[in-house]
Amino acid sequence: MANLNWSGIFPAMLTPFHENGELNLEMLSVNIEAQLAAGIHGLILAGSLGEASTLTTDEKFELLAYTLKVVNGRVPVLLNLTENTTKAAVEFAKRAEQEGADGLMVLPPMRYKGDDREVVAYFKAIAQSSALPILVYNNPVDYATYISLDMFEELLQEPTIQAVKESTRDLTNITRLRNRFGDRLKILGGVDTIFLESIALGADGIVGGLVDAFPKETYAIYDLVKKGELEKALEIYRWFMPLLELDIHPKLVQYIKLAASKVDLSTPFTRAPRLELVGEEKEAITKIIDDALASRPQL
Domain 8-294 falls in which CATH fold? Predict the structure, then answer.
């Protein structure tokens, strides 16, 4: 079993499409290179922002194979696992290991909201099925399942369960996790609008959304907080906040793809049921992005 270095910035990568809905791998490689040039520390494929819900399993593995080729060992590449059944989840984990993923981000069971015992059993079955390091995604706001400290105590009996994507939106949880587990559980802040605070409170890193469009600014904030230069970090963060708020909306995919397309790091196209932005909504979001670009800080 490999131990992953869970520190730093892990973009939840967009999945760029052509206008006809096919994967746009060329654009993906443009974005990957921009992320690596900015100094990010790992990539997560086919998450919620990567439109996992509209990708086939084979497409997820196509993204993995392509990304591994582009990255060529420069940073770890994680694949998101989001399944309805334990059987499918175990098969997916085994295939991810065979096809070269460096780790997994794992969501609780989809569609059925398990109780604590069922959710723990689900994660443990996945952990026991492959040697891949696991990032547990704790997001009760969007996925209705809260993974408690007592549940993590059980999960950490599995050596492959190493980290949490902390998306409870409750900043005190970072301190509770740290007090309870010390360094046994690595913590990645998972909410863009509190990512500076998460790092300042001692999170090991972040899983970001707007980093897809603004990798350099995201890295600068992370780096400055780590160096203790909070004033400088805050200056960039205050500029960034209207953009970061695009991440906590049901249409985060459309919004972040629009932002990334404005800086030539994605196409704006999504797959149905997501539709193209129109009318006042499109104007409002475009204005937020254009205003930010007009006042973009000199790093």
Answer: TIM Barrel (3.20.20)
